[in-house]
Each structure stands twice: as structure tokens, then as C-alpha cells.
Design brief:
It is built from 11 helices and 6 strands. It has 207 residues and is α/β, with parallel strands linked by helices. A 6-stranded mixed sheet has the order 1-6-2-3-4-5. The protein is globular and about 50 Å long.
Length: 207
């Protein structure tokens, strides 16, 4: 939704690799953007998934960018992963794999980057986007956090605060807007939007 607010034309499709695809001009390659939070990057390194992901990006036949969201502070606070090892991995991606690494950026700057990328690559502000399903090998905790991060106004840091406050996804989605707003940093406007999303009723076929 943040991309559309920036004036980007966003089409949600199933992508074989990456999270965003910016098509290039006629007879030129587009750009695949692999977007990761800093904790996602750490988990990919720990679980041995990073190399395979980079191979798929390189074999796509398109240009590729690794877009990092968050901060090194998140890594220190939530993962205890050695920062020197993380920086070494980022260096390997940029130098050995020749995949540019952008960030880490604040979440609010991600849309700015994608807008700028779309303009520079195609001259038009069009982006194909996909929020993929979490990998099977992720722990239940990581999958739950990933789902929480998809709610309006909730990023990686806030997702952990939600878990600490409610204890489970079930308790969160069953909460009232007032209960959601009791979490520091989540205002009533955001809480009401989350409540409306959770309680949205889809029309039955034939209606």
C-alpha cells in the first residue's frame, strides 16, 4: 500500500524469484529486487539458504538488487549474530556475487527507493510485487512474526512487541482496536485499520 501512495503502479503477481520486479524498457533487462529485513538476512545465513537465493537471482537472467530493511541495531538486540560475519556476508554478495546491496534502509525509505528505481529503469513507475509465503524450514515463531509484519503499521520491531504483549497470533487477531492501541507506538488510527482488516468479511460467491 505504501508503494501506491508514492504513485507507483503496483501489480501483484506470482514471481519465480525475488519480491519485486521492475520491468525494463524495450530490449533491456528489468531489475529483480530481493527484499529482506536484517533479521531475515541473519536467518538466511544461519539456515544456509542465502547462497541458494543468490544463485537463483543470478540465474534469473535479469539484473538483481538485494534491498535490506531495518538496522544493525535490530541484529544486535534480537539475534546476537556477530556483526563482522554479517558485514562479511554483505561484502560477498556485493563483490563475489556481483549483486548490489542497498541499505539497510528504514521501512519508510523502501518505497522511495523502489520509486526511484522504477523511474530510472523504465521511465514509468510500475512495479510487480509479491509477498511470498514463508519458507517451510522457518520456525513457527519466525512464521508467526512474518505474518504479523504484514499487518498495517507493523514492521519487524513492532511484531516482536505484539508477540510480547499478546503472546500469540490468535490473541492478537481476537483483540479489540482499543487493546491493539495499548501497544506503545501503535495509535488508535492504525489499531482501527488492523481491526477492520482482521474482521473484513469476504463476499460469498454469487453475491
Amino acid at each position: 500500500e505504501g508503494l501506491r501512495k508514492r504513485g507507483l503502479e503496483v501489480e501483484v503477481v506470482s514471481l519465480p524469484v525475488g519480491d519485486y520486479y521492475v520491468p525494463g524498457k524495450e530490449n533491456s533487462k528489468g531489475v529483480i529486487v530481493e527484499r529482506k529485513t536484517m533479521t531475515d538476512l541473519v536467518n538466511a545465513i544461519k539456515e544456509g539458504r542465502l547462497m541458494n537465493q543468490m544463485v537463483r537471482l543470478k540465474e534469473s537472467g535479469e539484473r538483481a538488487v538485494l534491498l535490506l530493511e531495518g538496522s544493525f541495531y535490530e541484529v544486535e538486540k534480537f539475534t546476537k549474530f556477530p556483526l563482522n560475519a554479517l558485514v562479511a556476508a554483505m561484502r560477498a554478495i556485493a563483490v563475489s556475487w556481483e549483486i548490489p546491496v542497498v541499505g539497510p534502509l528504514r521501512k519508510s525509505l523502501v518505497a522511495y527507493f523502489l520509486e526511484n528505481l522504477a523511474r530510472s529503469v523504465k521511465g514509468k513507475k510500475k512495479v510487480f510485487a509479491l509477498r511470498p509465503s514463508p519458507p517451510r524450514e522457518w520456525s513457527l515463531e519466525r512464521k508467526a512474526l512474518y505474518i504479523l509484519e504484514g499487518f498495517p503499521g507493523i514492521g519487524p520491531l513492532k511484531a516482536r512487541e505484539v508477540v510480547e504483549h499478546f503472546g500469540s497470533l490468535r490473541d492478537f487477531v481476537n483483540a479489540s482496536a482499543e487493546e491493539i492501541a495499548s501497544i506503545p507506538g501503535i495509535g488508535m488510527k492504525t489499531a482501527e485499520e488492523i481491526y477492520r482488516v482482521v474482521n473484513f468479511k469476504f463476499k460469498e460467491r454469487g453475491d
